[in-house]
Write a structure and sequence with these properties.
The complex is a heterodimer.
Chain A lengths: L2 H7 L1 H26 L9 H12 L1 H30 L15 H4 L1 H29 L8 E7 L5 E6 L8 E5 L2 E7 L1 H8 L3 H29 L7 H29 L2
Antiparallel strand pairs in A: 1-2, 1-4, 3-4
Chain B lengths: L5 E9 L8 E10 L5 H14 L22 E2 L2 E2 L21 E5 L8 E3 L2 E2 L2 H10 L19 H11 L6 H5 L6 H12 L8 H15 L9 H5 L7 H16 L10
Parallel strand pairs in B: 1-5
Antiparallel strand pairs in B: 1-2, 3-4, 3-5, 6-7
Helix pairs in contact in B: 2-5, 2-6, 3-5, 5-6, 5-8, 6-8
Classes of the chains: A alpha+beta, B alpha+beta.
Chain lengths: ~260, ~260
């Protein structure tokens, strides 16, 4: 076996892959949350639709997005491989329930991860796939209609937002006489419709709860695996992992379906 | 009871040998003094079993003062029983209530096969040690004591890691039956000291490779090992091992050939 293969096939190598893909997914959450804050803008979805178009068409971001899909798959596959190995390491379990004092989340990473994987599949089917459907099939299904926004460039105020009738459109921005016109896929409408269903909102909130507990253990655990843990800065890693990744990020995401359900 | 002695019910794992499957057998332990150690209580039970002509319960023990690492026993869901930072031989019966049912199991891990009843074969740990848990000292003139300066913090930290007695409670406690706390303690105690430097980068590779070969599980940084370790070996050791391993694999000259080559 080559040195490289030997390293990544070792127990520590597999854990390294889990840690690196996990941390990469953490950085994605920051980008995803900050971009989606546009949903809270009262502009008929103009900022959000422009952002959605940018994220799906700007080449460097597209490259990163493929890395992201790969990371989700690798993180999942390696989790399964490691879990199977771990089960094999204890073929006969204990009769008495283990009472060692450990955190609940650290014991249930597999369960939490499974909920998250299910969530990602449903989330991508309902938003990502709908957004890309026409590109994939090559047919205009108008699953997501287009919307036209006119903005006065002098005042910066939106003049009009108009749903376009079904037809062949492309994303476009042009300026005429101090008025900017933007035509974009109205993903914002898809969001509004989805988040009006109580069970859909409930599912999102549960999934984000799972995300919170997954990251509560996962973020600091990744640093442990990388060996970047020392009592000098361990409190900082725990602080970021707890308050930023396990509290602020899931709360920020959960606020979106809840906000749209009650006020959208 | 007037004399303060206890009556207990024991659910003990009985297994003839590694080839047969075992089962729990219930025994009564009567008139047990709260001042007895857990192993002394088992001695009393075994005495009565022997008198009745039954086979006594097999369990590992040696020094009975918490330093040899021989005693094991998974008691009521915890390695070495309910108290922190002690071995089974240091556990006293006053830690239990009169009339309590105590479940006693062997360490459960594929790499620790049951020899008989509660005794498991922990020679996997020996093989990991043999793979690299040593320093090579060339003989010659006797060096002066304290010739090599070692900062106190480093000496203390290395000594903390060196307190590992290799009992295997970390493996028993880990939900993945991972041996990483043990292996990392052995790597750390040598890797932090000047005498351990020449073999530092090959040691970590060899010992991790042997650990994987023995079939231990993978650490998920849950921390049950640290909580159950009778010597309170810190989880920091695992971080240190990971750091050394990746440095060795990715940035160092030392190569270790695995068995597949």
């Amino acid at each position: 076996m080559s040195e490289f293969k030997q390293t990544f096939n070792s127990s520590l190598g597999k854990k390294l892959i889990m840690a690196l893909t996990g941390l990469f997914l953490c950085t994605f959450l920051i980008v995803h949350l900050s971009g989606n804050l546009a949903l809270f803008k009262h502009d008929n979805g103009q900022a959000f639709n422009a952002y959605a178009n940018f994220m799906t068409h700007f080449p460097p971001i597209r490259v990163v997005s493929y890395l992201l899909y790969l990371s989700i798959l690798v993180h999942t596959i390696y989790a399964i491989i490691l879990t199977v190995n771990n089960r094999k390491a204890r073929p006969i379990g204990y009769a008495s329930a283990p009472k060692s004092p450990v955190s609940w989340s650290s014991k249930n990473m597999g369960l939490l991860g499974s909920i998250l994987f299910l969530f990602i599949v449903i989330h991508m089917k309902d938003f990502w796939f709908k957004y890309h459907q026409d590109d994939f099939t090559g047919k205009s299904t108008h699953v997501i209609p287009f919307k036209e926004y006119k903005t006065d460039l002098v005042t910066g105020k939106q003049i009009s937002a108009r749903d376009l009738p079904p037809g062949d459109y492309n994303y476009a921005v042009f300026t005429e006489g101090g008025i900017e016109t933007m035509v974009a896929k109205d993903l914002n409408q898809t969001v509004e419709i989805a988040f009006k269903q109580w069970w859909y909102v409930a599912f999102y909130v549960i999934a984000l709860g799972a995300l919170s507990f997954h990251l509560l253990h996962g973020f600091q655990s990744a640093f442990h695996t990388l060996g970047w843990i020392h009592r000098k800065y361990k409190p900082i890693i725990y602080f970021i992992g707890t308050w930023f990744f396990a509290v602020i990020i899931p709360l920020g995401f959960a606020a979106m379906p809840v906000y749209y359900f009650f006020f959208g | 009871m007037s004399n303060g002695n206890m009556n207990l019910t024991l659910k003990v794992w009985r297994q003839k040998n590694a080839q047969t499957s075992g089962k729990f057998v219930t025994y009564k332990a009567e008139g047990i003094s709260p001042d007895m150690s857990f192993l002394e209580m088992l001695d009393v039970v075994n005495e009565s079993l022997t008198k009745k002509g039954e086979e006594p319960i097999y369990f590992d023990h040696d020094c009975r003062e918490g330093i040899c690492g021989m005693c094991s026993l998974y008691i009521n869901g915890r390695p070495h029983g309910p108290k922190r930072a002690i071995t089974t031989c240091q556990l006293h019966m006053r830690s239990f209530k009169d009339g309590e049912t105590i479940t006693i199991e062997p360490w459960r891990a594929a790499a620790f096969p049951v020899v008989k009843d509660l005794a498991v074969d922990r020679s996997a740990f020996d093989r990991i040690q043999q793979a690299g848990g040593y320093v090579s000292i060339n003989t010659g003139g006797v060096p002066d004591a304290n010739e090599i300066p070692i900062p106190k913090v480093i000496a203390d930290e290395a000594f903390n890691s060196a307190t590992c007695i290799g009992c295997g409670a970390c493996v028993a406690a880990c939900k993945n039956a991972s041996a990483m706390l043990f292996v990392s303690a052995k790597i750390s105690q040598l890797g932090m000291l000047p005498q351990g430097q020449p073999e530092r980068w090959s040691r970590v590779q060899s010992m991790v490779a042997q650990m994987d070969e023995e079939g231990f599980g993978n650490c998920t940084n849950t921390g049950a090992c640290e909580a159950e370790c009778p010597k309170e070996i810190s989880l920091t050791n695992i971080g240190r091992m990971n750091n050394d391993y990746f440095s060795a694999k990715l940035f160092r000259e030392e190569r270790v050939h695995d068995h597949a080559e």
